[in-house]
Write a structure and sequence with these properties.
49% strand, four-stranded antiparallel sheet, globular, 113 residues, mainly beta
Length: 113
């Protein structure tokens, strides 16, 4: 059974940084199209970024240039490096194997002003 295990969320001040991790268990995250999503309080879940097996990345405009996505094949883990965080980035963040029901458990990120 494929699972995605997330870690790295928390509370940070505006302008700070956090790194989220998404580790694959039961399948390689390197061979899959992987995505990050987030859901802010009272809002629908939204797509944040996509990482293709060849390394190409795509981002929603609100995080472009601030949230680079990367992958460590040796650790079978994908990362979301969140920089210059803003209060509006506060949300639960999820990783997903694109197009499937395989999601991480979610990680709360809270940015204080």
């Amino acid at each position: 059974q494929v699972q995605l295990v997330e870690s790295g969320g928390g509370l940070v001040q505006s302008g700070g940084s956090l790194r989220l991790s998404c580790a694959g268990a039961g399948a390689s995250v390197s061979d899959e199209i992987m995505t990050w999503h987030r859901q802010a309080p009272g809002k629908a879940r939204e797509w944040v970024a996509t990482l293709f097996p060849g390394g190409a990345t795509f981002y929603t405009d609100t995080v472009k240039g601030r949230f680079p996505v990367s992958r460590d094949e040796g650790k079978n883990t994908m990362y979301l490096e969140m920089n210059s965080l803003k209060p509006e980035d506060t949300a639960v963040y999820y990783c997903q194997k694109r197009g499937t029901a395989t999601w991480g458990q979610g990680n709360q990120v809270t940015v204080s002003s």
